[in-house]
From TrEMBL:
Residues that span the membrane, as ranges: 16-33, 94-114
Protein known as: RING-type domain-containing protein
Pfam families, alphabetized: zf-RING_2
One GO BP: ubiquitin-dependent protein catabolic process
PANTHER family reported for this sequence: E3 UBIQUITIN-PROTEIN LIGASE AMFR, E3 UBIQUITIN-PROTEIN LIGASE RNF8
GO molecular function annotation: ubiquitin protein ligase activity; zinc ion binding
Protein's organism: Leptidea sinapis
Domain RING-type: 259-297
Length: 327
């Protein structure tokens, strides 16, 4: 339910968010430079501490820096000016929140760059799993910080926020790595491990060797089945790209309907010979089970299937019940 609500919010894309963050950061820096250009900016009333007496009245205390006014003819080098600008921005609330937003923008941009450079375009199920995992993590961390630890100070909240953001980014990247490479890598390592134990077994016909050989046979069959499903997936992707082109933006807009498979709005879609439109990933999963149009049941096979007495569902690519997800 929370993910559905978030999906409906008009959140800006990365380009708009980055442009807005850069603009806000530039305005904050300009404001800080303009304020700190005055040598006596430290005695400004907005940066002074106040003490509350017993009557509830505020009494002006010493300035934050605790220094006396400086003459206007004092020259400062670039390092001192940068340090003063940073000091002012750390004490000014608006500038402080702008810095926090800029740090988050840099983190999101770095995360998007890693995704584009390493993983490329995410598949539909990968993006959905990452989104679900992110919002579950945000909810759990919120309950932990404010419900279990009962953090009330702003500096502690900011520290927990920064740490949780870094962990969330690493967690999502790890999840994507697991979705794409863990199964195949783990299967290869386990097969090599069992083969190594069989090769170095002391007794060739011992009971342990028989158990290892049976396990190795199961692993090899699983690995071959995985390779076969990958070849079928590649053939299915090639078949879809050749026979079912992507619909133009005008066709998708004029269609004004949801995907008949997942009932979600369509921004991009593939067009079947019967002029029905579907999501690419939805159509890929459908064709793994039945080679007909999901709406009108028109056969989609480009070659005639041999007639058999006990014909099952029409399938271009038989995946043995193991569905592959298309991007």
């Amino acid at each position: 339910m929370p993910v559905t609500i978030i999906d409906r919010l008009p959140l800006p894309n990365l380009k708009v968010y980055s442009a807005g963050s850069v603009l806000l950061f530039s305005v904050a820096v300009y404001y800080a430079v303009n304020i700190t250009s005055d040598p006596n900016w430290r005695v400004n009333a907005t940066l002074q501490r106040f003490e509350v007496d017993s009557d509830g009245k505020k009494e002006n205390a010493e300035a934050v820096s605790g220094v006396s006014p400086v003459a206007f003819n004092v020259t400062r080098n670039l390092t001192e000016q940068v340090l003063e600008v940073m000091t002012f921005m750390m004490h000014e609330p608006l500038c402080m929140w702008t810095l926090i937003n800029s740090a988050y923008c840099a983190l999101v941009a770095a995360y998007a760059g890693v995704l584009r450079g390493v993983f490329g375009r995410l598949r539909a199920h990968e993006a959905q799993r990452a989104k679900d995992k992110l919002w579950n993590y945000v909810f759990n961390k919120f309950m932990f910080v404010f419900g279990v630890l009962n953090v009330t100070f702003l500096d502690e909240v900011l520290l927990w926020l920064a740490w949780s953001s870094l962990v969330a980014a690493l967690m999502l990247l790890t999840q994507l790595c697991k979705d794409r490479a863990e199964y195949g890598a783990a299967l290869l390592l386990e097969t090599a491990h069992v083969a190594h134990m069989v090769a170095h077994s002391s007794a060739l016909l011992s009971m342990s060797s028989l158990v290892l050989l049976l396990q190795l046979r199961h692993l090899l069959r699983s690995l071959l089945a995985r390779l076969r499903r990958h070849r079928l997936y590649a053939a299915l992707a090639t078949h879809m790209s050749r026979n079912y082109p992507m619909a133009s933006p005008e066709e998708v807009k004029n269609h004004e309907d949801k995907c008949a498979i997942c009932w979600e709005p369509m921004k991009e879609a593939r067009k079947l010979p019967c002029a029905h439109l579907f999501h690419n990933s939805c159509l890929c999963r459908w064709l793994q089970q039945d080679a007909s149009c999901p709406s009108c049941r028109r056969p989609l096979s480009t070659r005639p299937a041999p007639h058999t007495a006990h014909a099952g569902p029409s399938q271009l690519f038989h995946f043995d019940g193991n569905l592959q997800t298309c991007g």
